[in-house]
């Protein structure tokens, strides 16, 4: 039996797999926006980032699979300034990633504005990674800037399972950055990407990755769904290759998952465009490649194919073994756990689905 944690704009819903499909079991943080859900596979702890309209961002964890919750301190910027000279303040907790198995107490956290934080005490406290905050590119005009948000934000953190000192982050908008010394220093990894919205589309910094994923079967392979296409790298981000479909779908979008056993197999759920954020052609489709993007085909059996305005956000599509789950901005939750993918509707009439994680 598997458990899916579904973070929505009005709470956290816990689903379990049964003979009848994916079934809701419990609801937590009812009425509050859950923007981040993370499961630390080392400890089994569940982590949740909650947004309160009056009290701001909150960070909670459960060490007993949701039977009880504890609140811990959210990260603070401690006098750090934005490029305009204003005091940086936490606006949203975006993502979390655990350190290596040789670092049992380390957790990484990405926020809006684009701060990377690190904890070495299992999340009791977090410290700003100043080497990235003060990176020279951040202080240069039009290299770090807001896209859908007023400020750049960090939405993806990847730690190399073979080397806990090797860390990637993805920043919207700035690009992918790599550290090989545990966050002491950083270098851009954006060669081959295209920033079509800038006067120079081949800038070193100024790109807009929407989602960054490392292949579990080959840690040299990275994938990203970008503002300007689907890209993968076969050499750890040193160079990216555009593998968007020639007909333009898939191209723009947010959601991306990669198969655990095959680094060349990936799925995306496209969006019409930045200007028209609806399902392309008003048809909800999942696209799959089995050959590193040389070709794409739809895996959309069971999905609605007319008058569909749903889109899927960057953290609202996930996969664990044969179970795949995604949720939409219109509150529809779909799943498939068959080798031959066929989607089924688990819930409808939910509110916007922000994030999903499977344990």
Structure summary, number of beta strands: 28
Sketch the major β-sheet. Answer: 4 strands, antiparallel
N-to-C CA distance: 9 Å
Query: What is the gyration radius calculated from CA atoms?
Result: 19 Å
- What overall geometry do the principal axes of the alpha carbons give? globular
Determine the structural class based on helices, strands and strand pairing.
mainly beta
List the strand order in the largest sheet. 3-2-1-28
Task: Spell the H/E element sequence.
Answer: EEEEEEEEEEEHEEEEEEEEEEEEEEEEE
Low-confidence stretches: none
Output the number of helix runs. Answer: 1
How much helix, percentage-wise, in residues?
under 10%
The amount of beta strand, in percent, is: 35-45%
Mean pLDDT: 96
How would you describe the overall organization of this protein?
By secondary structure, the protein is mainly β. The chain has one helix and 28 strands. The protein has one helix at 130-133, and strands at 3-8, 11-18, 21-28, 33-39, 46-52, 56-62, 70-72, 92-98, 107-112, 116-119, 127-128, 153-159, 167-172, 175-179, 187-188, 209-214, 222-226, 229-233, 241-242, 253-258, 266-270, 287-289, 297-298, 317-320, 323-327, 333-336, 344-347, 353-358. A four-stranded antiparallel beta sheet has the order 3-2-1-28, with no helix packed on it. A four-stranded antiparallel beta sheet has the order 4-5-6-7, with no helix packed on it. The chain is globular and about 50 Å long. 45% of the residues are buried.
């Amino acid at each position: 039996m598997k458990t899916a944690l579904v973070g929505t704009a009005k709470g956290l819903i816990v689903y379990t797999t049964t003979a009848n499909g994916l079934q809701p079991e419990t609801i937590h943080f009812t009425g509050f926006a859950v923007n981040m859900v993370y499961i630390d596979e080392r400890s089994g702890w569940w982590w949740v980032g909650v947004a309160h309209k009056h009290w701001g961002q909150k960070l909670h964890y459960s060490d007993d699979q949701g039977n009880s919750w504890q609140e811990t301190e959210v990260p603070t910027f401690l006098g750090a300034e934005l490029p305009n000279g204003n005091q940086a303040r936490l606006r949203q907790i975006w993502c979390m990633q655990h350190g290596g198995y040789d670092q049992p107490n380390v957790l990484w956290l990405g926020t809006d504005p684009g701060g990377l934080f690190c904890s070495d005490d299992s999340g009791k406290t977090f410290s700003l990674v100043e080497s990235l905050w003060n990176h020279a590119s951040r202080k240069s005009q039009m290299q770090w800037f807001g896209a859908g948000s007023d400020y750049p934000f960090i939405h993806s953190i990847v730690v190399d399972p073979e080397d806990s000192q090797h860390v990637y982050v993805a920043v919207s908008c700035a690009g992918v950055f790599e550290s090989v010394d545990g966050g002491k220093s950083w270098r851009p990894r954006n060669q081959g990407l295209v920033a079509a919205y800038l006067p120079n589309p081949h800038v070193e910094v100024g790109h807009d990755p929407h989602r960054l994923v490392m292949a579990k079967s080959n840690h040299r392979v990275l994938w990203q769904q970008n503002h300007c296409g689907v890209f993968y790298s076969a050499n750890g981000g040193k160079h990216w290759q555009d593998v968007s479909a020639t007909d333009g779908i898939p191209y723009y979008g947010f959601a991306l998952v990669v198969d655990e056993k095959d680094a060349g197999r990936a799925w995306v759920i496209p969006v019409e465009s930045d200007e028209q954020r609806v399902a392309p052609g008003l048809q909800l489709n999942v696209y799959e490649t089995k050959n590193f993007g040389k070709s794409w085909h739809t895996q959309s059996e069971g999905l609605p194919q007319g008058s569909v305005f749903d889109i899927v956000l960057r953290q609202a599509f996930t996969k664990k073994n044969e179970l795949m789950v995604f949720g939409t901005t219109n509150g529809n939750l779909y799943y498939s756990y068959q080798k031959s993918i066929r989607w089924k509707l688990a819930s409808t009439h939910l509110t916007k689905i922000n994030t999903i994680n499977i344990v």
